Amino acid sequence: MSEKHHIIPVWFFVGILLFIYGVLIFVSGLVEFSHPPDTVLTNLHAPVWWGALLVVLGGVYCLMFRPGKN
Amino acid sequence: MSSLLAMFLAGTSTERLVHLRPVDLAIIVIYFGLVLGIGFYLKRFAKTGEDFFLAGREMTAWVAGLAFVSANLGSLELLGWAGNAYQYGIMAAHWYWVGAIPAMVFLGLVMMPFYYISKTHSVPGYLKLRYGSEASALSAITFAFMTILMSGVNMYAMAVVMEVVLGWNLHFSIIVSSLTVGVYVAAGGLFSAIFNEVLQFFLIWFGALLIPILGMIETGGWSGMVARIQQNFPGQDFTHMWGPMSSPTANPMGVQWIAIVFGLGATLSMGYWTTDFLVVQRVLSAKDVRSAKLAPIIGSFFKMAVPLIVILPGLLGRAVLPFHLVPGNQAQPGQFKYDDVLPLMLARYCGPGLMGLGITALIAGFMAGMAGNVSAFATVWTYDIYRPYLRKTESDAHYVSMGRWCTIIGLIVSIGTAYLVTRSKSMMDYVQALFGFFIAPLFGTVVIGMLWKRVTRMGGFIGLLAGVLSSIGIFVAMKLDQHWVSVFCFSPLAQPLAQAMWQALWSGVICVGVSVLVTLATKPIPDENLRGLVYALTDISREQNATIFQKPAFWGAVALAIFVVLQIIFW
After folding, report:
1. Interval B527-542: pLDDT, tens
2. Which of A32, A62, B427, B473 has a CA positioned 20 to 30 A from the CA of residue B488?
3. ipTM of predicted assembly, 2 dp
4. Do B45 and A29 touch (CB under 8 A)?
C-alpha cells in the first residue's frame, strides 16, 4: 500500500484495535460467569469466544503487518 | 473540557435503550484515541495535492475496495435499512443486491478505466474534460453544497441516536464527533478518511455479526425464524424477494419488479455507485488501473454479505422481539420505532464489552460518514470550483492548504446544518431527497459521454439540466398531489422508496433523451479532444499477460454469478 511513502499499513492498526478489544471483551466474558448480564443466551458465553477470536485475529494482523517487516 | 463533561453528564439521566458499563466506555475512548493518533501520524505524509486529496494514489485494491464499500456502510444506512427490513421484510435486501452489485461491477469493468486514465481528481473533473465547464460547474457546485448538508445530517443523526440509545447529550455528541473528524481529516486528508473507513469496516462486522449468529441459534435457523415470523404476523410475506413483486398490491412497498430492475438496478444504483464522488474518490486512490478496476469488484463481494448484519437482524426482530415496532411518526411514549430494531437486538444479545463494541461500530460509522463527506467536499471545492474559477495559478502547497481549511470550514457549516435540522426535522428528509435529484441524471450524462463519442458539450449540459429539473418536478408533483403518484409510478400504492425508483428512472430517461436530441442538433467535438475520455478513443489495458485469477473481469463474473444465485435462493 505504501511503497512511495513507507506508511505503516492500515492492517497493523486494525490488528492493534482488534487485539485490545479482544482482551477487554474476553475478560468481560470471564466476569460474566459470576455476574451474568440481563441478555438472552448468556449460557453460550459469547464474549469469551468472540473475544478470543478477536485476540487471535488482531494478534495475527499485528505480527504480519508490524512496522519494519517487508 | 469541563463544560463538555457537564453536558455529557446532564444527558446521561434521560431515557435510553441501552446502558454502558466502564468496559464499554473504555472501548469507545480507545477508538477515539486511535483515530486521532492515526490522523497525527498520517499528517506527515499528506504534503502534496495528490497525497491530501487522493491518498497519494497508492492504495492497494483491497484497501481501496474496503474504503469504497465502507463509505456506504454508515450508521444512518445500518439503522435505517435494519428498520426497513423489519418494515418490508427481505425485500429491503434489493438495495444491497440488485441495487448495488451490477453497478459496482459495471463501475469496475466499464467506467473506472476512464476515470483513472483521465487522471481526474473527481467526477466533476471528468465532466470538465469531457463536456467543458458548464456541466462540470453544475455538478461541482451542487455536489459541494449537498455534501456539506449531508455531513450535517449525519452529525445530527448520530447525536439523536446517541441521545436515544445511550442518553447522551445532543451537543456533546455533535461537538466531540466534529472535533475528532475535523482534526484527523484536516491532518491526513484522504489518507485519514480511508484508514478510518477500513477500521470502521472491521468494527461494524465484528460489532454486528454476533446478532445474526445468536439470533439464528435462538430461532433454530432460517426455517425456525420464518416459522416464528409467520406465527407472529400471519398472512404476511416477509421472507421472499421477487415472489410478491407481481403486483403493487402484493407487497408492503407498493412496487412492481419493473421499478426494482430498471428504476433501482439500472438507474438509481448505477447513479450512486458510479457517479457519487464520495464513493468514487476511494477507488481513484488505487495505485494502478488494475487495482482501480478490482477495488469495486472486491467491494461487491462484501456488499453482498452486508444483509447478514443489516437485513437479518431486522427479520430476527420480527421473530423474537416480544413487542411490535411502529413507524417513527406513530410512536407513542414507551413504544419503539422500526429504526430502533438494531440497537434493540444489540441490547438483547450483547452484554458488557460486546455492547461497547457494537456502539463503537455505530459511532465509527457516523464519523466515517462525516469524514467521507468533508474530504469529498474539500476535493471538489478545491479542484473543481476554487482552482478553475477563483485562483487558477497557485502552487500545489496553496491548494493543499485550501483543502485543510475547507475541511474545517466544511465541518463548521455541517455543525450549523445539524442545528438547523434540530429546529426543523423535516429538513432532514428534504436534504436526503436533494441527493436523489442529481444521481440518476448525472449517471446518464457520464455514461453516455463515456460510451458515445458523438455527445456534444451542449448535449451533455442540457441533458443533465433537463434530468435534474424533471427529477425535482416529479418529486414536487408527487408530494403535492397523490394523483401524480399513480401517473409516474403506475400505482397509487407506491411508497416513498418505490416513488424514488420511478423518479430516478424518469429523470434518467429524460436526461439521456434530451442529450441525444441536443447532440444531433449541435456540432461534434473533435476526436483529438476526446482521447482517453471515451470508449472508442481510449486504449484500455486488457491485462493480456495476467492469469485468469488476476483479471478483474473474471472476479466481476464470479460476483454476478453469486448475485444471481442469491436471487434464486430468496426468490
Report:
1. 888 888 888 888 776 7
2. B427
3. 0.93
4. no
